[in-house]
Amino acid sequence: MNLQNKMKRITLFFIISGFLIWGCGPQQPVTIDAYNYQIVKHDTFQQAAVSSAHPLASEVGRLILEQGGTAMDAAIAVQYALAVVYPNAGNIGGGGFMVVHTKEGQSYTIDYREKAPGLAHRDMYLDSLGNADLTQSQNGHLAAGVPGSVAGMELAYNKFGTMDFKKLIQPAIDLAEKGFAITEGEANGLNRTKDDFVRYNTQIPAFVKDQPWKANDTLIQTDLANTLKRIQQNGAKGFYEGETARLIVEEMKRGGGIISEQDLKGYVAQERAPIVFDYKGYEIITMGLPSSGGLVLQQMMEMIKPYPIAQYGFQSKEAINLMVEVERRAYADRTEYMGDPDFVDVPVAELIDTNYIRSRMLDFVPLQPSKSEDIKAGLVKEKEETTHFSIIDKDGNMVSLTTTINGAYGSRVVVGGAGFILNNEMDDFSAKPGVPNKFGLLGTEANSIAPGKRMLSAMSPTIVKKDGKPYAVVGTPGGSTIITSVFQTLLNLLEFDMSAFDAVNKPKFHHQWKPDVIYIEKNFDPQTRKDVETLGYIFEERRNIGRTEVLLIRNGVIEAVGDWRGDDSVAGM
């Protein structure tokens, strides 16, 4: 380590420790060393734990918990820390969903999903021939929806916060201003994206430099630090109004985007009713619309409930056959019916009616594959780059939070002078019915573009209780694979009685109705693949599926796991 980096490390050491030793009394000072940190994939804790996509963010959460903060305080601090240390998905330029369960036994969800700007319209990505131009919905200024993350954290803080908000955001400011050592994975990601950062930005951002990034290089984000300071001083108004809002609108004008001052000032995060259902004695608490994750997860768990899947065995051909057919039917319903409930009359009660859900499996024949072209949405009466973290505190408060800017590094647009990446969430709308988005998901009129509308999501932050007590906190990124990854993780825990480590790290598979293939990870068991292929299924290898963060509470011990598929790391006490 050269002297310059060493001096930065020492400065950061004292700034962050000076903040965090507040309230410690005679205890040893606790610190975050932003240049010599460890990725911890698996550990057990007695009181509280955090699992997130980056070790520095998990450490921030741990230190908040050590200072007496609640899981909700820690969640706010982790969200802002991820906006600094995990720029490909952590964000203040995107949105997400938070599921909260309090020590008093109450459940809440917060929707801070992005919205379509006021100038957006149904056919904005169609060319003169009526064909969808997805390059515009996926890259550049026109791909960005109105960000919701800052408003979401303010709503969460006003409802649940116990520590001074200025202290919760300070670690993120320090990490942005003084810098931190990037991981090898982050270096590779920044190098891969350099050309896009140059192509789509009107000002060269901090993520671009002349020489290739390498592990342990220092990333300093001065503009982002200043943006965070404005939020620290003025709350959400420091983002949606004033200097930051001006910078966003100026960036839109330079790059041909359409987010306006009125769009920013008018953004409101919303509290939504959680989805709560029983699965064989376990209470599942998850997110409702405009996230499709909770509804689809409830459908899949209810479809599978009558079958003795535990007896079939983990990734037996019988279990995979059943799970794929369940996924196929639930994703068909997602495509047809689901959208923003503020704009679309989604028949929620009918979609989660037990009789309806069971009827979806009447044509299921064990060990025989259906064809997606033959599986339509059920008939009811009218009515991929993301990140997740899981937190539980010593009192049993739990937070499951999934946040996103959609693709890796979002729209690739960094707001000039403000230092944060804007999302490309407009691609999560249906640009044209029947045209798949970047994750291959189809949509109908229910998820068409309209001003002020929230785009449909697959995010599925989930909390599980057993016998009225905290049992698990689960969630993952992964675009269209989010729901099936959470589904498989829950079955691994609740049916196959796995440890949290195995539930997260065993190979995953995914089916989403169309295209009619089973996606598998490269380490999927070859013999299992051969056995299932004999039934008539088509497999396709793909890159890693999800990055699941799990906290599992058994016998009074918290088992915390960070997914092997990334730099995910756990911390606790």
Entry keywords:
single chain; 573 residues; alpha+beta; Serum Albumin, Chain A, Domain 1; 2 domains; 7-stranded antiparallel β-sheet; 19 strands; 35% helix
Structure report:
The protein is of the alpha+beta class and 573 residues long. The chain folds into 2 domains: 3-20 and 31-269 and 390-446, no CATH class; 272-386 and 458-559, Serum Albumin, Chain A, Domain 1 (Orthogonal Bundle). Helix content is 35%, strand content 16%. It contains 19 helices and 19 strands. It has helices at 3-20, 55-66, 71-85, 134-138, 149-160, 165-178, 184-200, 222-234, 237-240, 242-255, 261-265, 293-304, 309-312, 317-337, 348-351, 354-359, 482-494, 500-505, 526-533; strands spanning 42-45, 49-52, 95-101, 107-111, 180-181, 218-219, 270-272, 275-279, 282-286, 385-392, 398-406, 462-466, 469-475, 509-510, 518-521, 539-542, 549-554, 557-562, 569-572. A 7-stranded antiparallel β-sheet has the order 1-18-17-13-12-9-8. Strands 7-4-3-11-10-2-19 form a 7-stranded antiparallel β-sheet, with helices on one face. A 3-stranded mixed β-sheet has the order 14-15-16, with no helix packed on it. Strand 17 (549-554) and strand 18 form a beta hairpin. Helix 3 (71-85) runs antiparallel to helix 5 (149-160), helix 6 packs antiparallel against helix 8 (222-234) and helix 12 (293-304) crosses helix 17. It is globular and about 60 Å long. 55% of the residues are buried. Mean pLDDT is 88; it is low at 1-30, 379-383 and 437-443.
Distance between the termini: 30 Å
Radius of gyration: 22 Å
Structural class: alpha+beta
The pLDDT mean sits at: 88
Largest sheet: 7 strands, antiparallel
How much helix is in the residues? 25-40%
